[in-house]
Automatic annotation (TrEMBL):
<protein>
    <submittedName>
        <fullName>GTP-binding protein</fullName>
    </submittedName>
</protein>
<dbReference type="InterPro" id="IPR036390">
    <property type="entry name" value="WH_DNA-bd_sf"/>
</dbReference>
<dbReference type="InterPro" id="IPR027417">
    <property type="entry name" value="P-loop_NTPase"/>
</dbReference>
<dbReference type="InterPro" id="IPR036388">
    <property type="entry name" value="WH-like_DNA-bd_sf"/>
</dbReference>
Length: 495
């Protein structure tokens, strides 16, 4: 069977939803017929389906898979040896006393053919065995020195990329050996809607504002309970994320459990401040009454753990704005946490009725704005902004004295004629508001102020993004080519 036939033969199982690109990258890596042992690194936030994907690849390619757990080194080596014996059908499993012996035996599986050797949850093994990355590096060096025609395709999988980078830094950096570095991300908002079986775009935004694109939340944490339609959303929230008997209710707390005790309270307060709309370090420090240096440290920790995204302001690059990366965490800080005691004592429907307005303003509205930014860079057609979008972020337009400040929700920059960073569009996003001519007038004034300050606004398109719709005057302006209008239908189905 030729290499191309082998790759084609490893069909992605139907139970693995989407992940076409990730599957193709993994299959190309594990089936590569080239001589020499290779190394792949797979990372991603928890509950994104890394294990599910890697188990499927190992099974399809008749490879070896081992799920690591935090345990003493001797216990791990014994469990690994037992799994190795099952895989090789040995009469008796080996008795490894050192990681050097185990790694050499695992790589030897690739002596005859390209074979995946997958160690999942790798960081959990490094804690009790901090020398393990160096042991693996040494095993590859020995294979290279003896010129063995080994074709082991070792894949080490773990948590967030920053953690994997720390594990593999230093003089024996495994990054130098890796020919594959794969990040398993949450589903894109369109993929998430399909995964949840949601056809209504507005309902899709609401559900995404609660659970984002994390696939495990549907299967593992709510037992496949999805809203049956727009009218079922409120009831779905009450029976899942506001239900203490459902695992999803507790998940947001678990996202912070790795913080040390000294940082946990400040981390919580920082997230509460961001959920309340404070996005800069100064605003956060003022809101929670903490020192700016302490807040900056916590922000760096949360960002390294993938819980926060940091982005420069579109028009003030020196100003960094933070947003919560995980929607469930934003829901927790804005809705669930302030009502935690009531949720455990009262009927969830009564609590949700009191919290519903907060959800719309503090959770759904910012999430809708982020989806609009994601749409601009990932789904907008090539002619939508008259240029190639490269980034879409928030931006603050401060005009002359007497002009109100405009907080632009979707500022798109891109490449036009080989000029990167060109301003393509300035937009407003309104989740629960019908937009009309006054919104366009504000955008026109903002573009004028930007032009006065020296920004090149030639060709910059004013854009309005609405979760409800647009008034007749704004529709008429669209017909005249004066504004770009994006509703939820276009967000999910159009360019």
């Amino acid at each position: 069977m030729s290499p191309s036939d082998v790759v084609a033969h490893l069909t992605k199982p139907a139970r693995v939803f989407d992940r076409e690109m990730e599957w193709a990258d993994l299959v190309r890596f594990v089936c590569d017929p080239s001589p020499g042992a290779t190394l792949g690194l797979v990372s991603g936030q928890r509950r994104q389906g890394k294990t599910f994907l890697l188990e499927a690849v190992a099974k399809a390619a008749d490879g070896f898979y081992f799920d690591g757990h935090a345990a003493a080194e001797a216990e791990t080596l014994q469990r690994l040896a037992e799994r190795f014996g099952e895989h090789t059908r040995a009469t008796h499993p080996p008795r490894w006393q050192r990681w050097e012996d185990a790694v050499d035996a695992l790589l030897a599986l690739g002596d005859q053919r390209p074979v995946p050797v997958i160690i999942d949850n790798f960081p959990d093994l490094v804690g009790p065995s901090p020398a393990l990355p160096s042991v693996i590096h040494g095993a590859y060096r020995r294979l290279h020195q003896v010129g063995r025609n080994n074709r082991a395709r070792l894949i080490l999988s773990g948590g967030i990329p920053s953690l994997m980078r720390r594990l593999f830094s230093g003089p024996s950096s495994l990054h130098q050996l890796a020919s594959l570095e794969l990040l398993v991300r949450p589903f894109d908002f369109r993929e998430a809607a399909r995964f949840w079986g949601i056809r209504s775009p507005r309902l899709a935004v609401q559900v995404h504002a609660v659970v984002g694109g994390t696939p495990a939340y549907r299967g593992d944490l709510v037992c496949d309970d999805a809203p049956t339609g727009p009218d079922d959303f409120d009831a779905w929230v009450c029976r899942t994320v506001l239900n203490p008997r459902v695992p999803l209710f507790w998940e947001a707390r678990n996202l912070l459990e790795e913080e040390n005790h000294a940082n946990r309270a400040l981390s919580h307060s920082t997230l509460v401040a961001i959920a309340a709309g404070r996005s800069t370090p100064g605003e956060i420090a003022e809101r929670i009454g903490a020192q700016l240096t302490d807040v900056s440290h916590v922000l760096a920790v949360l960002q390294n753990r993938g819980l926060l995204h940091a982005e420069p302001d579109a028009f003030r690059p020196a100003l960094t704005r933070y947003r919560i990366a995980e929607p469930l965490l934003a829901f927790e800080q804005s809705v669930a946490w302030p009502h935690r005691a009531a949720i455990e004592q009262e009927d969830a429907a009564d609590v949700w009725q009191r919290a519903r307005a907060t959800f719309d303003s503090a959770v759904a509205a910012p999430r809708f704005a982020q989806l609009c930014r994601d749409w601009a860079t990932a789904h907008a057609g090539p002619d939508t902004f008259n240029g190639a979008p490269e980034a879409a972020v928030r931006g603050t337009v401060s005009g002359p004295v007497g002009h109100p400040r405009l907080d632009a929700d979707v500022v798109v920059r891109g490449n036009v004629g080989g000029r990167p960073g060109v301003l393509l569009s300035v937009g407003l996003a309104r989740w629960n508001e019908t937009m009309d001519i006054p919104h366009l007038e504000r955008l026109r004034q903002a573009l004028s102020d930007l032009g006065t300050s020296g920004e090149d606004t030639n060709g910059a398109v004013p854009a309005c993004y609405s979760g409800i719709g647009f008034g007749p005057e704004l529709r008429a302006a669209e017909a005249r080519g004066e504004v770009l209008l994006i509703d939820v239908d276009r967000l999910y189905h159009g360019e």
